[in-house]
Amino acid sequence: MYKNLFSCKDKVAIVTGGYGLIGREIAIALNEFGAKVFIADLSKNDPSIIKDKNSIEFIHFDITSETIMSKALNAIIKQYGKIDIFINSAYPKTKDWGEKLEKVLFESWKMNLNDHLGGYFLSSRMAAEQMKRFGGGTIINIASIYGMVGPDFSIYENTDITMPVAYSAIKGGIISFTKYLATYYAENSIRANVISPGGILDRQPESFIQKYAKKTPLGRMGHPTDVAGAAIFLASDASSYITGQNIVVDGGWTAW
């Protein structure tokens, strides 16, 4: 009864930002659990992930462009007849993304919310409308614990990194928007959930890594594979009665 509970066999999956730090691991995991995976990204910058074109393919995708997204989704449906899993891991941002709050230009703020949060709105709606035609599906949007709680700025001291102010607004918006999606499309058998990772290890300064780990109950930063495990759960029938939820993958950071 439970042997194939986490199987994604014969499902068609799209991962936006599929060449990114988290998106890449999600794409690999979906493939290993049997899905036909499309890495939906701006450019094919990591061909090593596509070892078997029958399992993982690249498709040009831009969550800020309705025209490009429509073309991509229609191409996938024409070839495979459906979309079962849509995962938003894209991360568009402006060139001044790392500026501190007092230096952020209002135009930059608006552009980041429009491209990132707006892009998740556009892409999720387009995917859901296609899923309606084929009896349902599941949408997973990647948010962050900083869409839930305020940043601890002490961990950034004596480094050249910070937590951009727009990031918190965007990720908080994604969490709320996904709950809206869940109730709006429930009658169409479409589930919508969020994954909110904590800090993911990605060549940060050693002082930051140590401070972050010290403030985390499990004593370390997260890895992309930690997020991929949650994605498999939400993409598979193991979570068939779960929708509108925010799965927090943070090593206990928000449990203090």
3D architecture notes:
With 256 residues, the protein is of the alpha/beta class. Helix content is 38%, strand content 15%. The protein has a seven-stranded parallel sheet with strand order 3-2-1-4-5-6-7, sandwiched between helices. Strand 5, helix 4 and strand 6 form a beta-alpha-beta unit. Helix 2 (66-80) packs parallel to helix 3 (106-133) and helix 3 (106-133) packs parallel to helix 4 (165-184). The radius of gyration is 18 Å and the shape is globular.
Q: What would a concise description of this structure say?
A:
With 256 residues, the chain is of the alpha/beta class. The chain is built from 6 helices and 7 strands. Helix content is 38%, strand content 15%.
Listing every helix as H and every strand as E from the N terminus to the C terminus, the arrangement reads EHEEHEHEHEHHE
Beta strand count: 7
User: Which stretches of 5+ consecutive residues score pLDDT under 50?
Assistant: none
Biggest sheet strand line-up: 3-2-1-4-5-6-7
Mean pLDDT score, rounded?
A: 95
Count up the helices. Answer: 6
